[in-house]
Design goal:
mainly beta; 2 domains; 9-stranded mixed beta barrel; about 55% strand
Length: about 300
């Protein structure tokens, strides 16, 4: 991970914690003018709604070249992805490079976001020198894959993006539809965006078909009319079969969340979904769900 354009600070630390169920913290600091460190931290859930862990690593040059990793766990009282901007941290009980430590993260108003406990395990000068500082909280970007897989009767599947909606303050770096030359009847769509549900994204999705449930279907779990989606996007799905015959349909796809997985929603005015909304007919084709992120297509 590069530290290009990350400023250096004397006796303070400024990091970026990317919130969500998984995130990364990166930063660089200067210790007393004598050492420079790059800090990296990974946050993840042991189980949704339960304890989260954080793995912190440092790599840098102080009195000696130093590299160390420490793993802590604890409770997040507030979701870090809800708190953007400057936060504060304190480090307690860290008297040396090895030994117990408690990392507490609070909002600027003093509300506790998280308290994490563990051993420093040779974490280095970074924590020993800087026991208080500021954090900058921002959301993390994820690779979000949805697959539309055709059976052997189909020649190709293509998707052309029209519009999209991402939850406010969440990162977005484009939607990329990839067709495989070796397997042209399988389409992979990669959405590079944050994962935070919002009613605005769900509204964008439902408005595409005027809220008609018979025009919606979805993968594993969840509600056919989602209250929140992480993001949603519209476009044209083109299905080629036979002797170069192509049928095209306006569709909307959105990512939701159910249990421990992110599920996917599919809507189209040309879709007539089954009663359980796990399959349906899209014009001349039948669509069914496979797992949490795959829609299968075959000719009727």
């Amino acid at each position: 991970m590069s530290n290009n354009n990350i400023p250096l600070y004397n006796h303070t630390r400024k990091e970026t914690i990317k919130g969500d169920n998984f995130g990364v913290a990166v930063g660089a600091l200067e210790i007393g003018g004598a050492g420079v460190y790059e800090l990296v931290g990974g946050f993840w859930d042991e189980s949704l709604g339960g304890k989260r862990k954080v793995c912190l690593s440092s790599l840098g040059v102080g009195d000696v070249i130093d590299a160390a990793v420490s793993e802590m766990e604890g409770t997040f009282q507030l979701d870090p992805s809800d708190h953007f901007g400057s936060c504060r941290y304190t480090l307690e009980a860290a008297q040396g490079e090895d030994g117990p430590m408690i990392l507490t993260i609070k909002t600027r108003k003093g509300e506790k976001i998280a308290e994490l406990k563990g051993d420093s395990e040779g974490f280095g000068e970074a924590f020993c020198e800087n026991k208080k500082g500021h954090l900058y909280v921002s959301p993390s970007e994820h690779q979000n894959i949805v697959v539309i897989e055709g059976d052997s009767s189909l020649k190709s599947l293509k998707f052309e993006l029209d519009d999209h909606k991402v939850t406010k303050n969440q990162p977005f770096d484009g939607i990329h539809a990839e067709d495989n030359a070796d397997n042209p009847n399988t389409l992979k769509i990669d959405v590079k965006a944050g994962r935070k549900g919002s009613s605005s994204c769900a509204g964008f999705y439902k408005d595409f078909v005027d809220g008609k449930t018979n025009n919606m279907m979805h993968t594993r779990g969840g509600n056919v009319k989602p209250d929140k989606l992480n993001f949603a996007f519209t476009g044209v799905l083109s299905i080629e079969y036979g002797n170069g015959v192509v049928n095209s349909y306006n569709i909307c796809l959105g990512q939701g969340h159910h249990g421990t997985e992110n599920n996917w929603h599919f809507a189209s005015e040309d879709l007539e979904s089954a009663k359980n909304h796990k399959s349906g007919d899209l014009g001349d084709f039948h669509i069914s769900c496979d797992g949490s992120y795959t829609f299968k297509v075959k000719r009727k």
